């Protein structure tokens, strides 16, 4: 039986190495895996069902703000995700929490905080720094709308946001063009969007550079 495993997803090799060092020192009973892009996160989770927690950077290649968090939570709801980010504005921390993260570790945090956060989440709890930002009803509504999408629909939505046509999406995801059309219709209906452009704008709002 495979060992329980922790996945560190960050595109900065030095920071990834530092986090892995903390995990191997404090959680020796766990194996560790690493990923440097949103696509690798997805393929790693597919190949390793023994992963019990993901430490996830928000700004990896292929990620649009909170898109990878939402994708992992949608496809693997049983795996908790802890965001690890250099942007620790209260608004970002609150959005991570509302979009389903089990914890948030600022990249400036000491090793003790990383270990405490991982331990708390592995124990079924959560770990967030103190926050001043209020809960956002708009974010809560956005999270609820996106939660209606299947993992495949979410992938199609991200392709729409990249400006891809149905034919290109079909090629990108290995689907029949007609299947993509069905998905697009369902996505627009679930998100209450009138056009692909409106859906793309909605994805844009997931990006984590907003501080207001």
UniProtKB/TrEMBL annotation:
Q: Which InterPro entries match?
A: CheY-like_superfamily, EvgA-like, NreC/VraR/RcsB-like_REC, Sig_transdc_resp-reg_C-effctor, Sig_transdc_resp-reg_receiver, Tscrpt_reg_LuxR_C
Per the database record, which ranges form the HTH luxR-type domain? Answer: 142-207
Report domain Response regulatory positions.
5-122
Where does the source fall among the domains of life? Bacteria
Gene3D superfamilies given for it? 3.40.50.2300
Residues annotated with 4-aspartylphosphate modification: 57
Question: Which Gene Ontology MF annotations are present?
Answer: DNA binding
Q: Which UniProt keywords apply?
A: DNA-binding, Phosphoprotein
- Per the UniProt entry, what is one GO biological process? phosphorelay signal transduction system
Q: Which residues form a coiled coil?
A: none
Q: Which protein is depicted?
A: LuxR family transcriptional regulator
């Amino acid at each position: 039986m495979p060992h329980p495993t922790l996945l560190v997803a960050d595109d900065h090799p030095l920071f990834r190495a530092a986090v892995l060092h903390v995990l191997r020192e404090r959680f020796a009973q766990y194996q560790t895996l690493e990923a440097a892009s949103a696509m690798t996160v997805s393929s790693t989770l597919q190949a390793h069902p023994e992963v019990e927690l993901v430490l996830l950077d928000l700004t990896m290649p292929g990620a649009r703000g909170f898109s990878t968090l939402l994708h992992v939570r949608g496809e693997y709801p049983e795996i908790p995700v802890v965001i690890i980010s250099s942007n620790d504005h209260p608004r970002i921390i609150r959005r991570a929490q509302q979009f389903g993260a089990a914890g948030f570790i600022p990249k400036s945090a000491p090793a003790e905080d990383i270990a405490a956060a991982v331990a708390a989440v592995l124990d079924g709890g959560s770990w967030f720094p103190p926050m001043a930002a209020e809960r956002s009803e708009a974010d809560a509504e956005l999270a609820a709308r996106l939660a209606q999408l299947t993992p495949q629909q979410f992938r199609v939505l991200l392709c729409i946001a990249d400006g891809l046509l149905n034919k290109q999406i079909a090629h990108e995801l290995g689907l029949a063009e007609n299947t993509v059309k069905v998905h697009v219709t369902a996505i627009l209906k679930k998100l209450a969007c009138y056009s692909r452009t409106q859906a793309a704008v909605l994805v844009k709002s997931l990006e984590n550079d907003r501080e207001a």
